[in-house]
Each structure stands twice: as C-alpha cells, then as structure tokens.
Records
---
Amino acid sequence: MNKHILAAAAAVAMPGAASAAESVAPDYMQRAAPALARYTDNVLFGDVWKREELSPRDRSVVTLSVLVSTGKSAQIRPHLERALDNGVTPTEIGGLITQLAFYSGWPNAVSAVQIADEVFQERGIEASAIQPATTPLNDKPANDGQRENAVNNGVGQIAPTLGEMTNEVLFDELWLRQDLAPRDRSLVTIVALTASGDADQLGFHLQRGIENGLTKAELGAAMGHLAFYAGWPKAFSGATALGKLGNGN
C-alpha cells in the first residue's frame, strides 16, 4: 500500500493524532462530525495537500476552481487567502474568476469576485496588482482554425449567437488574455468542467491542456485533489476522460 495512505490511515486510526492547536477542522466539525474532522486534518490537509505531484500553488488553483465553478461561496474566502499565500497572484485570481464566468456562469463568478475584493482590500493589495480590464493577447494556437470551423459548422448552425460568441469572445479574446498563463487557463477549465459534471466536454480541453504545458501526471494529480472538493464520482469521470487520451506526457 502507498506509504502516504498508510500514514494517513494510521493517523486517522489514532485518537488525538492532531492536537486541537494543530487542527485545521473547525470546532463545530470536531463536535458534530469528529470523523470528518480527523479526515480533514490527517488525510486532506495532512496528506493530500502535501503531496508533491502538484505544487501548493497548483493545488490552490484546483481548489479555487472547484469552489467558484460549483458556487461554494462559503468556502471561498479561506482558500482564496491560502491561494495568495501559496503564490497565486491577485491578477491570476481575477483571471481565474473571469475564466469561470464563461464556464460556470456569471452568478458564480460575481459571488466569488465580491469575496476576492474584500480579501484584496483587507490585505491592502494595490490596484496595480489586480487584473487589468484589457491585456495584450497571446497568439492563437496553430490549430485553432480547425476548432473555429467545427464551431461554425456545428453549434453555429443551431445557435448562431452561441457560435459567434464562442469564436469571437471566448477563443479569440478570453483564451488569449495574459492574466492567466495558457497552462493555468487550461487547468482552471478542466477542473471546472470535471467538478460541474461536464465530462463530455473534457476531451478537447484535456488535449489543449497537454498542448499548453500540462502533463498527464499533473492532470491525474488534479483529479485526485478535486475528488475531495467535488466528490469521487466527478473525479472518476474526469480520470476516465483523461485515460482516453492514451499514452504520452
């Protein structure tokens, strides 16, 4: 058995493995669901968050992407603060939320950005450090014409406005903005689609994520991490879609 799992299992089995002073789990969890508190301390934060397949920064990006895309506003603040501590910049947080407005809807993004604004103000983050309204745009991927034609000949014939916005706003602007690196933009999108149960949309984005610099190992680790925040069934669906990419990085 994996040594991380053995260590976590041992910690969960031992009463008092994490002292009250060390506990991440809040008092109400320790009173009402002490087993959940112990899994929180010893497995989620004591093991999963410490695994090296993803950096702490990437784990924060994954977690925030799940919480924003699934509308879990009550959990966003502590993880947004952790993300800043883990090296996610205010500009990148703005980029993450903006990306998710398109992939999980404006209401989720608006709820998240209100919390981000509060945290930024509390931390005294200057306006110059926050996401700009416009940025220089990266070059389109060399194979983007194929994607554009597929949209025009598919959904564009059924829902012209959707097709137009997909090509002209989503892929000709949002995906080319520089407030998120292409790799991170793919990671955010893949995590959001998985967490929202939209696994049928993952094939294209997983392939684009590989092209944007993500590895299959990193994506696999992301599925393992998001299982704790979106649930095992969603993570299994995402991992199954990832497996269909075949061999390679």
---
Amino acid sequence: MTFSLAVRDGGAFGSLICSSSPAVGARCVHLRDGAGAVHSQNITDPRLGARLLDLLEGGTPAPEAMDRVVATDATAPFRQLVAVDAEGHTAIHSGPNALGTVGEHEAPGAAAAGNLLASAEVPRVLVQAWNDATGPVEARLLAAFEAAMAAGGEAGPVHSAAITVVSGHGWRTTDLRVDWSDDPLAAMRELVEQWLPQRDDYILRAEDPARSPGYGVPGDDR
C-alpha cells in the first residue's frame, strides 16, 4: 500500500512516501541528522525505523545495518524497509510476504521501494526522476512523486503522502503531510509551493531570532 523514496543530498536527508492508507508520514518516515533516512513500510512497525537509525548513527553502513535488523526480527518477512546512510550507501529489504506487486531500485544516495504497485517499475521511475530533477530537495522529491504517479503509482488510489527533510539543524526543516485526500499529489504540490519560499525564514527564526523576518500577522505591531 506504499511507495517511497529515501535520499541523501549533501548533508541533508529527504523522504517522499505515499500510500492508500491515511497519515503515512506519521508512521513510516524516520530521519536523523548525521545518520540517515529510513522507511518502515508494508504492514508497518515503526520501531524498526528507529532501530535502523540507531545503527546508522553508530556508523554501521546501511547494508550491514539492514542485515542485522532483518536477521534479528521475526516479523521481517512481512516488512519492507528502505535505508540511506550518511555516506550515501543504500539498502532495501522486501520480505516474501510483502503485498502485491513489489519493486525496488537503488542508486548512490537514493533508494526506492513499493508494494501493491501498479508496476514494479515505479521505484526505478522515482530514482530516475529524483536524479533528473534540479532545485531544492523538496522540489526534487515532488518531481519524483509526479513521475511515479504518471507511471501508475499504486494498484489502487493514493490517499496520503509526505515530504520530509532534515538538513543539519537538529529538527525536520521540512515536514509536509497530506494525511487524506482524493488528490494528494495536487495537495502536496500546493504545500511545497507555499512552504519553500518561507522555509529558510523559519530556520533563521530558530537559530537567530534577532535577525528573523517579522511575522506579519494581525496583532504584531513591532
């Protein structure tokens, strides 16, 4: 019920994830500054994402971290896991009980996987679109979302999506979610267009409030 793309871009990690289930971004996305990007999907256990990130943060390369988690988890046959580490190494696990048509694709710094796909080619399309796109991480992830949907996306309707980024500041500098919509791509496109012009201002407000732009909201007379 999910297709996703995890990436490293310089010192940033990004995630695109989409599902026919509600609120996919709340359950399946795990990012940590300096460590990596992880997705835990297909009959999701969010605890696996945290376990993978802990190993990545400790310096274990993504393929070895994936092998260790899969080897020690009895539920691994039901799970699909995606990981990218700080060196750009990638790893994907798709258990034999993953649902429907399953696909995977990896390239340096990018890994995509999905289940219940319209086509096993969707993950390859995600990675190719990411590599072909230019601009901020968020815009490139959105381009990947658009390409995946044009390639068929899931076998059924997609209802939720999330684009998430950490970029070395200690929090999710972008955390955009469409938790339920009949057209999550259009909703996410609007969110990205609204958010990107303001993103760096919100970072500045956190790190140097004396230099931050005014809020421009009613009642703020400064």
---
Amino acid sequence: MTQKVYILLSDTGTLFTKSIKTYTKAPYNHASLAFDDQLHDMYSFGRKKPNNPLKGGFVKENVLTGTYRRYPNTTCVIYELNVTERDVIKMKRLLTIFIKNKQRFLYNILGVLGVSMNEPIEFSNSYFCSQFVAEVLHRSGIELWDKLPALVTPDDFRKCERLSLIYEGKLFDYEPIKKQLLK
C-alpha cells in the first residue's frame, strides 16, 4: 500500500540562511521531513531555540510555535514522495532513535562546508538538515540520488524527479497551516 511522506524546503530569511544562499544561489536552504501534509510530525537538524542560531541539533519542528513562527515571512516548497507502508515504518523506527537520544546529536556545520568542497565531512551523531533527511530516506531503503547523504543539499530535493511538488509560496499561506492558525 502506498503512503506519502513530505519534504519541506524553506528559507526563513535569517542572516545565517542569507549567507548560505549567497554561496549556494539556491532559493531554499533548509530541509525537513514530515509524515503528514499538515506538517504536524516534522523533523530536521536545525536551531534548538528559535532565537539562537548557534545551538543546533536534532529537532522536532513545530510550525505554529517554533522557529517558523518567529519568522512569519518564511518561504517554502513542499514535495510529496510516494513510499510503502514498510518504508514509513522503517523511517519512524529510525526516528525513535533520534528522539530518544536527541541530546546526543549535534548540528554538522563542518559538513555544510564539506558539501561546498564536494567532500563529505561526517561525524557520528552529527548532521545538517538535508544530510539528515537524505540519511533517513537512505537507511529506509529509499535511494533518490547516487551520492552520499553527507553531500545532499536542499536543492538536490528540488531537482529530484521522484518528488511531486504540492505547494510553493509563503509557509503561512499553505492552506493546511492557515487552517491551523485560524483555530
């Protein structure tokens, strides 16, 4: 039976994301993995506290209360990926390890630099956002590219033919999010 997972690529417009964008020339520089189209169950590596870009690691993101809420002009693109029920089970099983050990995981800032040199820089328990999403997919048996997860950028998701675009625009204009805000 086919199920869907969702990849959110976003740009909050912060100084950190602007500096990454200057180098990458890509419109989005953050990747998250979600299990529903309302983005309730969404995971990534990023800011642990919305007002502190230096403290990063594994995060369960909440559009309504977290970093995104602090940056209401966030732009995004949302893709869906058809997967099997077994794939989702594998992904969620892997995520329980991240959730249970979230304090042990760090943001892989050196890995971001490695991508710019096309040289993977990996540390145990350390990921950057697109590396994390690619790693979860890869470890669940979903191969979208012929490269290591440590070299996957948010723009690679944008260019992936297996992903179907479902929305592009301001995050808070996305209909399922708008409905949540009106509650």
---
Amino acid sequence: MTVRVVTSMGQGVRPYLDALARLRIRVFRDYPYLYDGDMSYEHRYLEAYSRSRRSVFVLALDGDEVVGCSTGIPLADEVAAIQQPFVERGMLLGEVFYFGESVLLPAYRGQGIGHRFFDLRESHARQQGGFRWTAFCAVERAPHDPRRPGDHRANDPFWTKRGYRRQEDMFCTLDWTEIDAVEPSAHRLRFWLRSLDADLTNYFA
C-alpha cells in the first residue's frame, strides 16, 4: 500500500473534516480511550482547530482515503482545560505548540508514519516561530485494567525516544462517554513535553 503524508493548515483541511471525524471515532474506540464516538462533538472539535490560522493537520492518505491524521495548534488557541496546567507552572501559553492527537488505522502502523506525524508537526511549530515547546497529553489507565488487551503496547518508549519527557505534576481532566456507558465521565490525562530549543534540553533534568 502506498501512503502519502501531506500537511494542511487551518481552513485548508475543511474538505476532510467528515473523514477525520469518522477516523477519530474509529481509532479512539479502542483501548485505552474506549470512546463511544459523537459526530457532533467531533465536528465542533475539528472545526475549532481549523479556525486557528496556525494550526496544522498532517494527513495520511491511501489514494483518496484518510487512514491517519495528526493535529497541532498553538496552546493559546486551545481550551482552558488544556491550558491550565501550563498556567499553573508559570509557562507562557504563546511559547507552547500543542499536539492534539495522532490516529492511524491498524493496518498502516509500523511503517514509520507515526514518526512522520511528529516530524512534520515539530517542523511546523519551528517554522511558525516563537514556540519553545511542543506538548501533548495522553490518557492513563490503571496498570491492571481488565479491559486492557493482551497485546496492548504503551507508547511511552516511542515518545521518550522522540525526546519527550513525562511530566509528573501536569495533568488535565477531560470528559467523554465510554463504550457501554450511559453518560460522560471524567478522565485524567498526563502531559508530555519537549523543548524545541537546544538550550532548554536540561530544563526538566
């Protein structure tokens, strides 16, 4: 299979919004998110990203089919729940470029596309200028969660090799409805940070 990886900024992604919403719902249904998808929410979320002039969408395309997507946005354009841990630490919102997600259909994993997602988002953040950090957050489940598949592998080693540091004191809480649940529940997500400035590499040492 031949996959093209392309980038789009802001409003340029609008022709893909329906496909991206369906893709996010499909991928996030799996562990550890167990998300019971909501197209209305997905459209609101993706449209908010598309309205940011400096956002980026990295798309993986197999022909005309969107098989993967990765997003990024200036933290100053994100919602307050994502911003708050940085405010509490005393970091300037304007210096952080936030990565929303990376979703990729299982058949396309293990081909280096995940690395391309990070490469292109980090490159975009540098080209925009003024950003000193890239960051993202990820949900954490209990180590022995009975819903955890036997073949599930955590992404922590991949993120660490990319230069991201697991933050021991930075969390946010987001609500979504899990599979088989009646209503949304709160989920804790941990932040990971990387410096875009070589002079800051020991900031968290």
